[in-house]
Amino acid sequence: MNEFINVLFVIILILNLFALGNSRILTIIRIVALQGIILGALPLFIEHHITIPLLISSVAAIILKGFVIPLIMMKALRDAQIKREVEPLIGLLPSTIFGGLVTALVFFISSQVETTNQPEVSLLIPTSFATILIGFILLITRYKAISQVLGYLVLENGIYIFSLLLIEAIPMVVEMGMLLDLFVSIFIISIITNHINKAFSSLDTRNLSSLKE
Amino acid sequence: MAFILILFPVFIAIVALAIPSNRYRPWLLPVTACIHTICTFIALKYPEWGFKTSWLTLDPVSSIVLISITLLFLFSSFYAVSYLKNRNEQSNRFFTACMATFLGLISLMIWSHHLGLMWVAMEGTTLVTAPLIYFNHSKKSIEATWKYLLVGSVGIALALLGTFFLAYSAIYAGFKPTLDFNILLEKAPFLSKTWLRASCILFIVGYGTKMGLAPMHAWKPDAYGEAPGITGVILAGGVTSGAFLALMRMYQICNAAGETVFMSRLLIFIGLFSMATAGVFLIDQKDFKRMLAYSSVEHMGILVLGLGIGGPALFGTLLHIISNGMTKGILFLSAGNIQRSYLSKNTSQVQGALKQLPVSATLFLIGFLAITGSPPFAPFISEFSILNGAFLSGHFISGGLFVFFLLIIFIGMGKTVLQIVQGTVPQASEKSNYRDTFSSTAPIFCFLIVILIIGLFLPPPLAEMIRNAALFLENK
User: Which residues of chain A neighbour B151 with C-beta distances below 8 Å?
Assistant: First the structure.
């Protein structure tokens, strides 16, 4: 079982790098969706006793992260009629290499720091941190509003991985509240991106620069 | 009581979505606000009627924040009616619903003693305030909303990570992981120091982004500048006080864990840095709403500085939550009136406001004097008390810098404010038919009365509550 969980973590890390290296926004949406499905299913493999609340929150996470949010994003993409991130701040290849280096660094540091407990989740903390940092890289280096939202989603996924350590501590109501917040925020953000597209005829956030000192 | 305070506004929001009349819909807000205020005072007076579980509790510290926010919302809601009457060309359905939902969510945030639930409510307030910023539907307001949402979401995501770190620090120490505030407080001495410190940093960065502490304040001038004045009040007095409550929770845990020194250093540094940043941008600021945003950065800095100094400064800090909120009410609402009359918020066009809008301009001037800490208003008492605390506890350098920054900010803001209120009205603006009315100025007078009462004689029950809260913050 441990082996299998570790394989899933490695897949998540590889998906991170794919997301960094792809220019087609639709593909990145699919990558993030796949990552969401794996994340949603993870608690079922980590916990030994599968309870009803666990099952419900897991299914809710899969539906939301794997299907609902990607559909909202795809609709926003269709409305905006753009296909790719044309010129990111850092090129695709350099940012993939940078992402790989960051991941390696996180794993190196975490191997130096003594971590506690459960051997079955030994990859969990470094995977979580690497995903959060790659979310940041996506968020900062891309200009299209939708790509930035995808960066935020990867960051959110990284935080979700960390929360798997704390399944006992987070009651279902709170878990559902977090998912609801995520859903509403993506919903509102997609409305705003739609308005950005209408007002500026583009989703390039460099247009959003009239407010400054 | 807790359920009324939290669920009733949400129920009203649903009603607001259903009501077709644009004219009568805003009246739901004062109704909600009155009921909310009455219930708040009942819950404070008769704590046994208030609801109490391990998740929802009204403790002395959150009582202070609750009083501040309920009064803030009460006065603003009456202003909202007059404001929305003037903006009748636009549907106020979502505006009204979001305002009401905000009240419910911030009440949930204040009551919750479960840090996960608190986070959910805080994130919720970010989301419902975004449409309030976007109300004007202009290009600039889109830009402001986008920055607010993106920066706010990332910041609050980091706060969530910090919350998880806190729970994880319990596992590290061999306990069952939990986010229950009372249990964490009890077990604080045994929590893993490394994870607790990491969590503390993420709390300051995450909730600090919501408060608008420098250098995480990038969204603030844009959002406050483009949003209607009333949204500014909700953000500057409401959301920020809620985020500060989260930091106070962390302070209590750090205090119980014996990590006060670590957190205090961070808070003092970031507090002074925020004041310095605000000072730099307030000098020669042409846009008076951005000026108010930087003033808010300054006052958030004062709050965390006071918390960082701790001990004798805590009384002033807690009082400052109320005095800052109320004074921001005066400033944002009167600035909103002035902007509406001149259709500009730049000092090159806005001059002679005392002639154009005698009441609003006078209130704006008084608000400026109050917020910069002039007697006899409430911020004078709270800021003086923080300064006193700084010197009593031996923070001479911080205290000295605090006074220095206050002086710089007084001069910087003074120049902008005087340009607005004095001089002659430019010809282009004379034709404007927007003038002071009773309904657009009376709510501002209510704020003024509150800060005058606190400034002239602090009501003994309130002083008693704040003293209790200060003791509670130090786990005594």
Answer: none
